[in-house]
Write a structure and sequence with these properties.
Elements (H helix, E strand, L loop, with lengths): L1 E8 L13 E7 L8 E6 L3 E6 L3 E8 L2 E8 L8 E6 L3 E6 L4 E5 L3 E5 L7 E5 L2 H6 L4 E2 L6 E2 L14 E5 L14 E6 L4 E5 L4 E3 L2 E2 L13 E6 L3 E6 L4 E5 L14 E6 L8 E6 L3 E6 L4 E6 L16 H15 L18 E3 L3 E3 L4 H5 L19 E8 L11 E6 L3 E6 L3 E6 L14 E7 L10 E7 L3 E7 L6
Antiparallel strand pairs: 1-2, 1-34, 3-4, 4-5, 5-6, 7-8, 8-9, 9-10, 11-14, 12-13, 15-16, 16-17, 17-18, 19-20, 20-21, 21-22, 23-24, 24-25, 25-28, 26-27, 29-30, 30-31, 31-32, 33-34
Pfam families: RCC1, RCC1_2
């Protein structure tokens, strides 16, 4: 039997059985999503989404603008089974059992993502059909993407030109170029995927990056997204990162952003087996079960000493805003502004309060990353732009061995040998599962649920924006 447990933000009734509690400070069973095999879970600040074998996809929380909703999504056309998903407040990305990729948006339904290698350019004699295919900014009927091919300058008295056209026989979805996607991950700035052959995609196109050493063969084994940055892991244990780097989350020793995957050289001397990306921080686990972290430490999410007495002003305003939205108290939405603009609150008929689409990202506009580097005058760490080892204070060597790690917006949870859970970082809504709402900048052991038996196993760990989900598998009792 499998049971889903959840702790953290419950302002939109993500756990219907605990609807009266906005904060869930300990792992509680999500009774609506148990007893059947759980294939995947993801958490956004406004809803929890679960994939179950035989039950498909179910969203709990703020759905279609309605608080406390439970929505069971019908499967995409001709799809029998969803095996993996990733979610943002705006959309879902899923993989099916036959390797297809679909995206779902509220009020828009399902749309197939045509994933595949770029069609091979072939040379054809110039003809009207080829002219139409290669017209600048023509919309591809197969992918819905824009094809922008700049025509060559005309030359006087030259023979009829041959031009490049896209050979649709080897395009996405064709028998000769079938792509079977096995994982997706999405953030605010990226939608990425991984296929069964070890090719990574910035959906829908293959991801281009410079491998090290040059010309080596690198099969990608995992991809993950944070809010604005991404990581990928290769079969050789190398980690590449790209995207936004303003809080050191790329691990390159700077706050610069990267347009395409770049090798994290500080990790290149070891083999990495697990990667994770949070809002603006990252985590990896080495082959020796050691945990390394880098990025933003504003709430202690790197388990490094920081100033928890005075959180970022902009995020304090966001917390008040969301609490007002969830408790339907419009008079509480008169929040102090951050250093720049504040988030908007929308009222409908003077009754319903609609929160912003992405409060945390909006709040970052009032946070100056340039002033957040490590303070040489103190031991406080706000930004750690290179990987740093995190010590797990287990009583035995087994408890110190990191097996899995997951990152939320500003918190981190680690699974070690012996089914031990450890948490640190932002804990305003109890997302660390420690039984309180005090943030922690040091590793602290998370009490296991009361129903955890000796033969139970932590099968899955998922941290989302402001919550944590744990799937526990318990063998049936012998008759």
């Amino acid at each position: 039997m499998e049971t889903l447990y959840y702790c953290g933000f419950n302002g939109f009734k993500q756990v219907p059985s605990s609807a009266n509690n906005v904060t869930l400070t300990s792992l509680v069973p999500h009774k609506s999503a148990s007893n059947t095999r759980i294939l995947d879970v993801d958490i956004c600040w406004n809803y929890l989404v679960v994939v179950q074998d035989g039950s498909g996809i179910t969203k709990y929380g703020l759905v279609d603008g309605k608080n406390g909703s439970v929505e069971r999504l019908t499967a995409p056309p001709h799809v029998e089974k969803i095996v993996q998903l990733s979610a943002t407040p705006r959309h879902l990305l899923v993989c099916t059992d036959n390797g297809e990729c679909w995206t779902h948006e509220e009020n828009k339904g399902w749309r197939k993502v045509h994933v595949g290698a770029e069609p091979t350019p072939l040379i054809h004699d110039e003809d009207p059909a080829a002219e139409a295919i290669n017209a600048p900014n023509a919309e591809s009927a197969d992918t819905g993407c824009l094809i922008d091919i700049k025509p060559e300058p005309a030359q006087a008295e030259s023979p009829p030109k041959k031009r490049l056209s896209m050979d649709h026989d080897v395009g996405p979805g064709s028998p000769s170029c079938h792509v079977k996607l096995v994982k997706t991950s999405c953030g605010d700035a990226h939608n990425i995927g991984l296929d069964a052959q070890g090719v990574a995609y910035s959906l829908p196109s293959p991801l281009d990056f410079d491998v090290f050493p040059a010309n080596a063969q690198h099969r990608v084994t995992d991809v993950v997204c944070g809010k604005e940055h991404c990581l990928l892991l290769t079969e050789h244990g190398q980690v590449y990162s790209w995207g936004g780097g303003s809080r050191g989350q790329l691990g390159h020793g700077s706050l610069n952003s990267e347009e395409k995957p770049r090798l994290i050289t500080a990790l290149d001397g070891m083999k990495i087996k697990k990667i994770a990306a949070g809002g603006w921080h990252s985590a990896v686990i080495s082959q020796f079960d050691d945990l390394y972290m880098f990025g933003w430490n504003e709430s202690g999410q790197l388990a490094q000493t920081t100033n928890l007495v005075r959180p970022a002003e902009c995020f304090a305003a966001v917390e008040k805003l969301l609490m007002a939205c969830c408790t339907m108290q419009p008079e509480d939405t008169n929040n102090p502004r951050g250093d720049s603009e504040d988030c908007e609150v929308y009222h409908k008929n003077n009754e319903e309060v609609q929160p912003p689409l992405d409060p945390e990202k909006d709040a970052l506009t009032c946070y100056n990353a340039a002033t957040s580097c490590n303070d040489s005058q103190s031991d406080l760490v706000v930004v750690q732009n290179i990987p740093m080892l995190v010590q797990i204070p287990g009583k035995s060597g087994e408890e110190c061995q990191a097996l899995d790690v997951s990152c939320g917006s500003r918190h981190t949870v680690v699974l070690t040998s012996g089914n031990q859970l450890w948490g640190f970082g932002w804990n305003k809504y109890g997302q660390l599962g420690l039984g309180h709402t005090t943030s922690k900048d040091a590793v602290e052991k998370i009490p296991l649920p009361k129903g955890f038996a000796k033969n139970s196993v932590v099968k899955m760990l998922r941290c989302g924006d402001w919550g944590t989900a744990v799937v526990i598998s318990t063998p049936p009792k012998k008759s």
